Amino acid sequence: MRFFSSQTMQTSGKLLRNSKPMFDRTRQVLRQSKMFRRFLISYLIILIIPSFAGYLSYRTSISITQSMSIENSVTELNKSKEMLERRIAEVEGFTRQLALNQDLNALLNEKPAVSGEVNVFGIWELLKQVTPFSQTNDFLQNYYIYLSNYNVILAKGSTYRPESYYQSSHYENMSLTEWEDQILHSTHRSEITPLNTLVMENKQISAISYMQSLPLDSFSGSSPAAIVVTIDEQNIENLLSGWIERYGGWTSITDEQGQPLSLQGITADKMKAVSSELDSDNGQVSRFWGDDLVITIPSKTTGWVYRAGIPKHVLMQNANHIKYISWVFTGAALLVGLLVGLILSYRNSAPLNHLLAMFKEQVLKDDQFQFPKKRNEFDFLHGNISQILVENKQLESEVARQFPLVRDGFLKRLINGEFETKSEILAAAVQTQTELESHSGYVGILQVNGYPDLDSVDILNELYAARLLVKQMLNGNDPWPGMYLTDLGSDQIVMIFLNGMDGEMVSKEEQRKQLESMIGRIIAIAYQEYKMKLTAAFGEFFSSLQEISQSFEQAKQMAEYAAAEERPDIVWFSDSRLESGSYYYPLDMEHRLISTVRAGDREEADKLLRSIIEQNRENRNLLLEMRYQFINEIKATLIKLLDQKVFLESGRHQELHLKVMSVQAGSEWETVQQEFGEMIAELCEVVTSKQNDSQLQIVEKIKQFISEHYSDGELNLYRIAEQAERPEKYISQLFKEVTGTNLSDYLEQVRMEEAVKLLQAKQCTVDEISVMVGYNSSHSFRRAFKRVMGVSPSAYRQLAQ
After folding, report:
1. In angstroms, rounded to a whole number, what is the distance separating the alpha carbons of residues 88 and 94?
2. Is the CB of residue 104 less than 8 Å from the CB of residue 214?
3. Which of 84, 147, 621, 707 has its CA 20 to 30 A from that of 445?
4. CB of 590 within 8 A of CB of 651?
């Protein structure tokens, strides 16, 4: 205590000597600023509180310590409860994901043609999809799925007949017949069985079981499928192990019927005695039972009751220490608080004084602003800042009003093919709040006919009104989900119809029928009610966002073709064979082809190439010279690509150049398409190889950095990403893709491997090792070590010895 007081006085004296210039300025401010005095008075009032607190803490230290310990215990138990309920919720979420799994639903709806016949491929696909779930949640390590139509059980990466699975895993007190009747053939709705003994691979474990029938709307009788998740009691105890390590005592979890789900440090009989006595407390959280303080927390989500007992001596061990330091702390707080109050009063009032002076200087220049003498500084600042906020709201409102123009600009860029990659399109769509969940559909142009003279202001105004009427009809009572409109000139409206935005994907033929019905109805209404004659032209079906511009160009061609040939009200590009002596290979298509190859997107590049060739082969009657010129144009595009740096440095530039030049323009279309496709595949392979090399270098750099800095307790994803000079999300995904392991798991594994070496050396304590391998808390280190290695550090050292 003497050392603490002396050290406090020395520190206070040093602060006073160093703060002399501050006090000089403070005295000047004190004479001039009422704001400073208000701050100082508030701090002095606050300083009175510690003096009373010191006295009361001495008198009530025992009760305070007890209440704090109870509160901390309740918080700790609540955390354990929340962790366990999150795990149970993940288990329930797993069953709901399975309920939505298309492959599982397909298996449920199958009826084997021959008794005993099994859809092996479908079951294999399902097993492949559900296996990763057990790697992310230790509660999902043991589960099985029963399919009643096949009478098989899917578990542990394989399939079993019920009687075979029963031999390897069954309840000790349940026969095969009872198990089939009560578990497999009954209907379950998120049921959890009490703690029971389970015989699994000739070993007995205590476990609870979560059961859910599929589909989720099964209510009675036998259901098509059942999911049973067996949760080892040890996994539940691991979530409560922190409580035992910190407080000792015992923990228990019971269900709504009082059946045990987990017991640590207490027998079932003792638990029943505690429950029978405490259940009548009307929701009391804490109560002493014998020499233990019992914390009781019921769960509103599951109906379970969580109880934990803390020995009484653990609660009271800090009381004497609090008594000893209470008066010292109170005296030091008064002395230091007075000094800090003076400094903070100046520091907090000075910015407000500067702000007030700025407002007086800038705002009061206008004669309409006057500073009332009776109003204080805070009222003056409040009024002017409120005015700034109102003006800011008006600015936000104006930006929101202009937002449709921003979206219209995005749609125009989209149909004009100004985006090179899919990611660029999606990023721009998010900025303009445009939903593009579906990537397929049709692009159409709705032409308002009968207005040849577009130079007249009256006609332009009439066309504006006509376009507005058409848009209102398109956005009527039942608009097309995923429809976006933008103007094209004065007499045309571009329509983008996405497929499946209402959650139900249809074929392109079905979507075409629906569009014909909707557009035909609008054309008829426009003519009957407004005497407007409309023509709709549609491009081909696009299957990716990058093809929207191509479908738009086709729709433009059909609109021009329909106007020249006086075609029917609705025309489709796929129904017409345009008579043309020239080939189709616009500049934007060439740019898109180059961009997709440079990105290594082989699938999209193949799709573009196939689309370009089909346009010229199927929809155009090319003369032989035009065909040769078209093929030479594609060859020229590939030569441009080969001049890129990535191909010049690949060592295959000459080889690829010769392959391009060897393509014969006089070959059959199929041969030309195959040869160009092989060339694009090789170019994408070069790009992908270069990208993979770069990614491997980044991952190796990350591993090297972790191996050198794993002992740093502040090492996290942000610092690793900063070292790699990449975004955090990119680093995390890249490491997972290359190594198959999460970055956090890899860091933990490196630390555990070093901890094992240090434990075997027997030169350092467990607490010292925890710091040496980068853990700020020995408790966190022990939990991590036990989770990874299966035993505590001390037990591992004993086993190693």
Report:
1. 10
2. yes
3. 621
4. no
Q: What confidence score (pLDDT) does residue 1 get?
A: 35
Task: Identify whether the C-beta of residue 450 lies closer than 8 Å to the C-beta of residue 505.
Answer: no
The pLDDT-based confidence of 729 (bands split at 50, 70, 90) is: confident
Per-residue pLDDT band at 12 (split at 50, 70, 90): very low
Residue 401 CA: distances (Å) to CA of 250, 467, 484: 62, 20, 18
Domain boundaries of the chain, sorted by first residue: 2-70+318-362, 371-401, 402-576, 710-800
- Whether the CB-CB separation of 430 and 422 falls below 8 Å is answered with no
Amino acid at 488: L
How confident is the model over 240-290, as pLDDT tens digits? 777 677 777 788 888 877 788 788 878 878 888 777 777 666 667 777 777
**C-alpha pair distances (Å), 531 with each of 131, 255, 450, 726:** 63, 72, 10, 60
Say whether pLDDT at 410 is over 60: yes
In the block, tokens 């009989």 appear at 269
* Tokens read off for 700: 């190796």
Query: Could you give the CA distance from residue 170 to residue 199 in angstroms, rounded to a whole number?
Result: 5
pLDDT tens-digit map of 470-514: 888 888 767 888 888 888 888 888 999 888 877 788 888 888 888
Q: How far is CA 222 from CA 140, 150, 703, in A?
A: 24, 14, 53
The gap between the terminal CA atoms of the chain, to the nearest Å, is 44
CATH number for 402-576 (one of 1.10.3210.10, 3.30.465.10, 3.30.70.270, 3.20.20.10): it is 3.30.70.270
Query: Do 342 and 23 touch, CB atoms closer than 8 A?
Result: yes
**Whether the bond into 351 is cis, omega within 30 of 0:** no
DSSP string over 205-256: EEEEEEEEEESTT--SS--SEEEEEEEEHHHHHHHHHHHHHHH-SEEEEE-T
Assess contact for 496 and 484: CB atoms under 8 A.
yes
Give me the count of residues in the chain: 801
Distance CA 674, CA 604 (A): 16
Q: Are domains 402-576 and 710-800 of this chain identical in fold?
A: no
Calpha distance 448→455 (Å, rounded): 16
- 346-379 exposure pattern, b = at least 16 Cβ within 10 A, e = fewer: bebbbebbeebeebeeeeeeeeeeeeeeeeebee
Q: DSSP character for 776?
A: S
Element spanning 20, H or E? helix 20-32
Pick from 357, 343, 348: which is nearest to 35 by CA? 348
Strand, helix or coil at 536? strand
- Buried b or exposed e, range 722-753, using 16+ CB within 10 angstroms: ebbeeebeebbebbeeeeeeebeebbbebbbe
Average pLDDT in the 183-187 region?
84
The pairing of beta strand 191-192 with beta strand 441-448? unpaired
Categorize the per-residue pLDDT at 5 as very low, low, confident or very high, splitting at 50, 70 and 90: very low
Torsion of CA 403, 406, 410, 412, to 10 degrees: 110
* pLDDT for the residue 565: 64
Residue 109 pLDDT exceeds 60: yes
Residue 668: strand, helix, or coil = coil
What angle in degrees, to the nearest 10, is found between the helix axes of 624-642 and 669-709?
10
DSSP type of residue 581 = S
The superfamily CATH assigns to domain 710-800 is Homeodomain-like (1.10.10.60)
Residue 795: count other Cβ atoms within 10 Å of its Cβ: 13
- For the stretch 423-443, pLDDT in tens is 778 877 877 878 887 788 999
Model confidence at 8: pLDDT above 60: no
Q: In angstroms, how far is CA 556 from the centroid of its own chain?
A: 40
Is a pLDDT exceeding 50 seen at residue 23? Answer: no
Q: Residues 591, 594, 598, CA angle at the centre, nearest 5°?
A: 140
